[in-house]
Write a structure and sequence with these properties.
The protein has helices at about 20, 30-40, 50-65, 70-75, 80-90, 105-120, 140-150, 165-175, 180, 185-195, 210, 245-255; strands at about 5, 95, 125-130, 155-165, 175, 195, 205, 215-220, 230-235, 260-265, 280-285, 290-295. The protein has about 300 residues and is an alpha/beta fold. β9, α12 (about 245-255) and β10 (about 260-265) form a beta-alpha-beta unit.
């Protein structure tokens, strides 16, 4: 998940609050819907987005053949109606992302973090990297390109991509992108890690060498989905800026709990939590702020 679909709201111009967002036939107050969405996936919305959010809710309720009140009751039941909830969430987010979106973070990974972790790993050990909120997969594949380019690592790594959107995960697993999407991949990486699907160059495909080392999964950073793997590097960029402060603290604590001893968590610019996560030390790598686990090693299960 990368951002709210209502960053440029459609039909929401002039909406300034809950009363504006509320339709004539809505029994459930908009605030209850916002609280439900916040509780289940951490998303928050600006005032100008509220009418758009409620418009989506009404459309989904109508498609389901029920009132907004019945739809709210349907989605309020924990552990039930997962498919319907996923359908609503898909309407509330979009999947804007790109390869190597924050170059300084990837430079820090390539020049400092990977060499340190590679040299410190046990003999025969693999490194695990996680793109948390990977959207349609570009960040995860960017991590894989950098790791594959480290000759001393010898391809002994796995990159994991997780996102709340199952649609985005399906796109990521497919691993095909248009010319505009791959334009930000440097030329030597593009030649090595991407291949044209047809002569017209209308689509590019991630090569098998990377796909074999990249796995994708649906995950929810707020729900603390069950994970059996611990990670040496976690990237979480352009995700937390759409979370409430409480959800940011909760999600970062969860991410921190999945780091191996010595592992690094890199957040996007402006996405630092209000409190330093337990067990992590803040560090700066050529101007890139990162957190490193230096104590309280989590229970670890490596893939």
């Amino acid at each position: 998940m990368d951002k709210s679909a209502f960053d440029t709201p459609s039909g929401a111009t002039g909406a300034t609050g809950s009363e504006t967002a509320r339709g004539d036939n809505d029994v459930v107050a908009p605030q209850l819907w916002y609280d439900l969405i916040l509780r289940r996936c951490g998303l928050t919305f600006r005032s100008a987005q509220l009418a758009g959010v409620m418009g989506v809710v009404r459309e989904q309720a109508k498609a389901r053949g029920c009132t907004s009140e019945a739809y709210y009751q349907l989605l309020s039941k924990p552990g039930e109606n997962a498919a319907e909830w996923e359908t609503l969430v898909e309407r509330l987010i979009n999947h804007e992302t790109s390869f190597f979106r924050h170059p300084p973070s990837f430079d820090a990974l390539q020049r400092h973090i990977l060499p340190e972790l590679r040299d410190a790993r046990p003999r025969g050990g693999r490194l695990n990297l996680w793109s948390a909120g990977c959207s349609t997969g570009q960040e995860a594949y960017s991590l894989a390109m950098v790791a594959m380019d480290d000759e001393a690592l010898k391809g002994e790594f796995t990159v994991w991509g997780g996102d709340i959107s199952r649609y985005a995960i399906d796109v990521a697993r497919r691993g095909r992108y248009g010319p505009r999407a791959v334009a930000s991949v440097r030329a030597d990486y593009r030649q090595r890690f991407l291949r044209q699907v047809n002569e017209a160059g209308a689509e590019y495909e991630i090569v098998d060498q990377l796909r074999q080392r990249t796995r994708f999964m649906a995950s929810n950073l707020v729900a603390n989905d069950s994970f059996s793997v611990s990670y040496d590097v976690i990237f979480c960029h352009n995700v937390l800026i759409y979370f409430s402060p409480a959800a940011v603290t909760h999600a970062v604590a969860f991410l921190a709990s999945r780091l191996t001893l010595g592992g690094y968590l890199l957040l996007g610019p402006g996405e630092a939590p209000s409190e330093r996560p337990p067990g992590l030390a803040q560090t700066s790598i050529n101007g890139v702020r990162a957190f490193q686990r230096r104590s309280t090693r989590p229970t670890e299960g490596r893939a």
